TrEMBL record:
An annotated GO BP: autophagosome maturation
Protein name: Tectonin beta-propeller repeat-containing protein 1
Residue ranges occupied by any Peroxin/Ferlin domain in the UniProt entry: 64-125, 137-170, 829-890, 901-934
Any Pfam family hit: Pex24p
Molecular function GO terms recorded: phosphatidylinositol-3-phosphate binding
Main location: membrane
Presence of keyword Plastid: no
Domain PH residue range list: 622-732
Highest taxon of source: Eukaryota
CC terms in the record's Gene Ontology section: autophagosome membrane; cytoplasmic vesicle; lysosomal membrane
Length: 1182
């Protein structure tokens, strides 16, 4: 995860940032004044300073912010002058925009603000539509406007050329003032919030900026995107009342707080209307106490009330931005903020510390506990390093009738205040200190807005007595700002002109008496008011044992999730970290010289001495070798030590290819086995508890069902080889980047994800691409089910029923570097159960015991009974998995159990039931233990409902569907319809529950919104009246199952419906028409089928069992149905592809129409070249 920043403002108005990889607050040294509050995004940070102006801090990056200004020079031909600037009165301007309607002379272009600079002068664009032009960039046409060409013709009467000039945003990593609006200026701002970057990807870097003025108005900043980070103008948003604070999330959530304590929610926000259309009212969490603060994220809303209580809003999402109810949370805060990934930060009401909400995940949005962020600031120093000459004092006085003058003594002569000293020898009582405080809902902006023009320090000193006589002390519990007051910035001394103003108000606090050198003449000590002073250290305002006091925090640019390792909570801060290191210029020069000498010596040692060698990059062949073990092809099969080599070379045209070599000994004779890289169709990890092995398939090896299986010494070595071989295979085939929208997705029985890019001829008739020649590459992550469609929406379900949505990246897992994308890769966690069975047999003496017959299965075994599996020797599926629970009895076994988890039968194996009868002589019960896998991949979790099946509408290639229907089944059997699923928001917004009479287990949606589902009892259902206007339909129609069969899975294509029963039979639904979508009857197609997938072209792919190869029998093989066409939708035969070990496949994204092949003769037909096929019978040879 990239490093990002958390922003905060302390009570003195200083801005700090904390990196996710850092351990201390870094102060923004370039801030020239104090700030009230900030709001951050990943690319920038906005703030309100004490002058009530908006400032922007754009983070520096390798990609500069450049904007292209352009104008067109237009000319017309006349017989006297030729082409000249003399245009007809009806013509466009001589210098205009591309339409010719706006006059744009070169001198009229101005920089938007001082934050921009011109990169150069105006120049002519000498390219026209990607081709160079002749004669100074002119393009010609018959008239304005018309089609322009770069060549001059005899009828070319007009011409134009484009002038370009670039301006660059130069105020990177510094606070730049946003220029004031030229029209009616809004009143000063008091609150600001940015977000909305997830609403629309175009234009790049788009943001929504909302602001609140002192009069309670709300303003929206238009035109903020990457090339215009400052935006263009402010637009006022109508309100139902006066607003005090506003919060904008990354998506379409915007909440605000009214003066009366109610909350309002912005509705209608979308990509075409980022500022929304209307407001909806939401009551305060507490009926007696109004709200003071609100913070929103993607799917969360947090609020604070006037008693500093924290509240969480449940049920909030894009479909329901108002939520459903409030939940009271633990803690008392004065300010709260929601950052990226819905992470929550707050400022405590008592200690003014920044708190981080731990345990916030997509499935538990409210988190678990508050934890204080305890890291030092970069300006913190130990007590010993603070010296008297480095501290200066600034006094703030609040008094009623003070006729005397004060003197502030200091070691610096510039800090003296001119005043009489005749009573300086009288002892005084040292006043109590005052602590600055900034409330979360308002600041004393009157300190700035109501004061007069700035005065010099001498004018302030001379006016001091008069000012003091007019001031009064506010009563307890009340805060009042003086008419005129002076508060110096902690980073400045008293001496400079135009002292900076602080955005703090003062509240009397109990504390130790401050030791000060000020001498005050108290002529009237009986007055209600008294003189109070406090000492501000200009460089270190806090004492040794005092922690920073914060006023505002913003996590909008801080990317943190539940798996991020943070160093923010280290309470044991070493004193060495807080010490300031003094480095003299002489030491710096010496170090620089020493480093330069070391680099020069290294260059001579590593480069100069080898200049006579040829450059390695110029060689076109390179070889990587290693030692491995190979599962040999001949009997007896066993692992033998071999030398493995990959020789890769570049062709004359830059194309890459390679050869794999396996060198082994055969009866003391050295031999080798080889395979061309461009013939490798897939690389499959085959992990178990004893070997780190992987399999290499080629078309010939696929036919044999016998791959090249190699084993590395360590897991890391295996991953290195897999990544290298995968990149080599992709290079040889010219495949790179993420999978296409038409890709075919599949999953192995171990949860590994593979994709294949289909060719145009894959579904062609009569000569389709052979299925065993398809190239599959691995994608990071771990899933049990995956479904897709042709506009790029891909959903997956893990073994723990967690729903995941594809983010558009590639790689992840063990893929690194060029084999993986740098963004859109996230941590993925999957949990699965490992099962073993305890078996017992009954005898007349002891009853049921673990003493079986000699022919019985193991008393502790797997489901088949062929392998012994005990609690002690059973290990996780692979080294990637770790146990997360103990062994427990599993009562959720098909057929039911008794109260102890036992199932009974007449013998092993047989049909088990959950109650004992007189004929039951054996019994078993299943034990389960959970294990967890943590990996990475281009997947993001879709909370919070666990799913067991999902289906997406298989759109056509030229589909214009905006909202894509997506249906799913929860792990409890509930049918759900996902709302808001689009190509831009594939995760959708919310779930809509569809009522059923019984739990379901499989669902599929086809063209024309045909929704079919399978209940857990094996019966089929059809959902009627499903449409875009009624996405959930109206009722279920029961469809009779095939005779004596229980269905388990269904897949619906364009016009066809296929199902698989529990016995592995594949069925086709006959008679399905638009007028009668339920169909008429079932027709048997094949057996030994595990899964079926019907695509948008009615293509049919299955996962078949018991596929016989020339060397072995494989289970879990990808098969393609051949001969599918409108007049023969059931197809003719099967073509066998990759396998075994596959568990799931989906072709619902492949909507590419195959090319039509015309046979040379209708009378002479060539036999269909199908390999390993069977016509309308078993998908395999049993």
């Amino acid at each position: 995860m990239p490093v990002s920043l958390l922003w905060a403002v302390d009570v003195y108005g200083r801005v700090y940032s904390l990196s996710t990889a850092g351990q201390q607050w870094e102060q923004c040294r370039d801030a020239q004044m104090e700030f009230k509050r900030v709001t951050a995004a990943q690319q920038c940070c906005w703030g309100i300073a004490c002058d009530n102006n908006i400032y922007l801090n754009v983070h520096a990056s390798d990609l500069p912010v450049r904007y292209q200004e352009e104008t067109y020079e237009n000319q017309r031909w006349n017989p006297v002058d030729g082409f000249s600037d003399r245009l007809l009165p009806s013509d466009r301007w001589q210098l205009s925009d591309v339409t010719g309607l706006q006059h744009q002379p070169l001198d009229n272009f101005r920089l938007p603000s001082s934050s921009w600079e011109w990169e150069g002068d105006w120049y002519v664009d000498e390219n026209f539509e990607g081709e160079p032009t002749e004669k100074e960039g002119w393009s010609y046409a018959i008239d304005f406007p018309a089609t322009y060409t770069k060549d001059k013709k005899w009828n070319s009467c007009v011409r134009r050329r484009r002038w370009l000039r670039y301006r660059r945003y130069k105020a990177m990593d510094t606070w730049a003032k946003i220029p004031s609006q030229q029209t009616t200026l809004p009143d000063p701002f008091s609150d600001i919030s940015c977000g909305g970057w997830e609403i629309n990807e175009e234009p790049r870097g788009r943001l929504s900026l909302w602001a609140v003025s002192l009069q309670g108005k709300v303003w929206f900043r238009e035109g903020i995107y990457h090339h215009n980070p400052e935006g263009s103008l402010w637009e006022e948003v109508p309100l139902p009342g006066e607003v005090v604070q506003i919060s904008c999330g990354p998506g379409d959530l915007v909440w605000a707080v009214l003066w009366e304590g109610q909350l309002i929610v912005r509705e209608g926000i979308g990509r075409d209307c980022p500022k929304g259309t209307s407001w909806a009212m939401v009551d305060s969490p507490s009926p007696d106490v109004g709200a003071t603060h609100v913070a929103v994220g993607v799917n969360v809303v947090w609020a604070l009330t006037k008693d500093n209580k924290v509240w969480f809003r449940r049920g909030v999402n894009s479909h329901n931005p108002c939520g459903s109810g409030w939940i009271s949370m633990v803690g008392e805060m004065i300010m709260i903020n929601v950052g990226l990934n819905d992470q929550v930060l707050a400022i405590g009401s008592e200690d003014r510390a920044v708190y981080f909400r731990q345990g916030v995940t997509s499935s538990e949005l409210s988190g678990k506990t508050w934890k204080v962020i305890s890291v030092p600031r970069d300006g913190d120093r130990s007590h010993s390093s603070a010296s008297a000459h480095s501290l200066q004092s600034a006094g703030c006085y609040f008094c009623g009738e003070v006729r005397a003058h004060c003197i502030i003594t200091s070691s610096s002569p510039e800090s003296f205040v001119d005043a009489p000293t005749e009573h300086s020898d009288q002892p005084i009582e040292t006043p109590k200190s005052r602590i600055p405080k900034v409330t979360s809902d308002s600041f004393i902006s009157e300190l700035v807005s109501d004061r007069g023009p700035g005065k010099t320090s001498r004018e302030v000193r001379s006016a001091g007595p008069a000012v003091l006589e007019e001031e009064t002390i506010p009563l307890e519990g009340e805060v009042k700002a003086p008419d005129v007051g002076v508060s110096l910035s902690p980073s400045q001394s008293v001496g400079p002109l135009d002292p900076q103003w602080s955005n703090v108000d003062l509240e009397e606090a109990q504390g130790q008496q401050a030791q000060t050198g000020a001498v005050v003449d108290t002529a009237d000590t009986s007055s209600l008011s008294s003189v109070a002073t406090f000492t501000l250290a200009m460089e270190d305002p806090y004492g040794v044992d005092e922690h920073p006091m914060w006023a505002w925090v913003s996590g909008g640019g801080c990317s943190v999730d539940s798996h991020t390792q943070l160093n923010w909570f280290n309470s044991m801060v070493q004193s060495v970290q807080s010490m300031s290191l003094s480095v003299t210029p002489a030491q710096t020069a010496a170090w620089r010289k020493q480093i330069f000498e070391q680099l020069s010596e290294r260059t001579k040692r590593e480069m100069d001495n080898f200049r006579h060698y040829e450059q390695a990059i110029e060689q076109s062949v390179w070889v990587k070798k290693g030692t491995m073990q190979w599962w040999r092809d001949w009997k007896p099969h066993k692992w033998i030590d071999v030398h493995f080599a990959l020789e890769q070379f570049s062709g004359p045209e830059g194309n890459k290819d390679g050869i794999l070599f396996i060198y082994y000994n055969f009866y003391e004779e050295k031999k080798y086995l080889h395979a061309f890289v461009n013939e490798v169709t897939i690389l499959v990890p085959v992990l178990n508890d004893s070997k780190h092995s992987f399999a290499i398939y080629t078309p010939e090896r696929t036919k044999q069902r016998w791959p090249i299986r190699l084993s590395a010494a360590t897991e890391l070595e295996m991953h290195d080889w897999l990544a290298l071989l995968s990149v080599s295979c992709c290079d040889s085939r010219g495949i790179q980047g993420p999978p296409s929208k038409q890709a075919i997705w599949s999953i192995t029985c171990k949860g590994d994800i593979f994709v294949s890019e289909p060719s145009l001829s894959l579904e062609a008739m009569p000569y389709p691409t052979p299925c065993d020649q398809m190239f599959w590459r691995q994608v990071g992550g771990h899933l049990r089910v995956v479904e897709c469609n042709s506009i790029g929406i891909v959903w997956g379900i893990g073994y723990d029923h967690t729903a995941w949505v594809y983010t558009g990246g590639y790689g992840g897992g063990f893929f690194q570097g060029l084999a993986s994308s740098t963004d859109n890769i996230y941590t993925q966690v999957d949990v699965k159960n490992v099962y073993i069975y305890e078996n017992q047999r009954w005898n007349p003496v002891t009853g049921y015991t673990n003493r079986g017959l000699p022919t019985d299965r193991y008393m502790w075994s797997d489901a088949s009974g062929l392998h012994e599996c005990t609690k002690t020797n059973m290990k996780p599926p692979s080294p990637h998995w770790t146990w997360v629970s103990d062994w427990t009895i599993d009562y959720s076994v098909s057929g039911g159990t008794d109260k102890e988890g036992w199932q009974y039968a007449a013998d092993f194996p047989a049909s088990y039931h959950g109650h004992k009868t007189m004929k039951d002589f054996v019994r078993r019960r299943r034990w389960a233990r959970k294990c967890k896998l943590t990996t990475t991949g281009p997947w993001q979790e879709v909370p919070p409902i666990p799913l067991s099946d999902v289906t997406i509408l298989p759109c056509a290639a030229q589909s214009s569907v905006d909202v894509v229907p997506l249906w799913a089944i929860s792990n409890k059997g509930d049918v759900l319809c996902r709302l808001g699923v689009t190509a831009l928001t594939p995760a959708g917004s919310s779930w809509l529950h569809v009522g059923t009479d019984q739990p379901f287990k499989s669902i599929s949606i086809g063209a024309a919104s045909q929704v079919w589902a399978i209940a857990r009892d094996g019966s089929a259902f059809y959902r009627g009246s499903v449409s875009s206007q009624s996405p959930a339909g109206d009722c279920w129609y029961h469809i009779p199952s095939p005779s004596k069969q229980k269905l388990k899975q269904v897949s619906v294509g364009r016009t066809s419906v296929y199902t698989v029963d529990e016995n592995g039979n594949l069925w086709y639904r006959q008679g399905v028409t638009p007028s009668y979508p339920q169909g008429s009857s079932w027709e048997h197609i094949s057996n030994n089928v595990r899964k079926v997938s019907a695509g948008p072209l009615d293509q049919v792919w299955i996962i078949a069992d018991k596929v016989q190869g020339s060397h072995s029998l494989s289970c879990g093989t990808v098969c393609h149905r051949l001969g599918v066409q409108p007049l023969e939708p059931k197809g003719q035969s099967w073509d066998y592809g990759i396998g075994g070990g596959w568990d799931h496949i989906t072709v619902r994204g492949n909507s590419m129409e195959p090319p039509r092949v015309h046979l040379p003769s209708l009378t002479e037909r060539t036999p269909l070249p199908v390999r390993n096929t069977e016509i309308n019978s078993s998908a395999v040879g049993c």
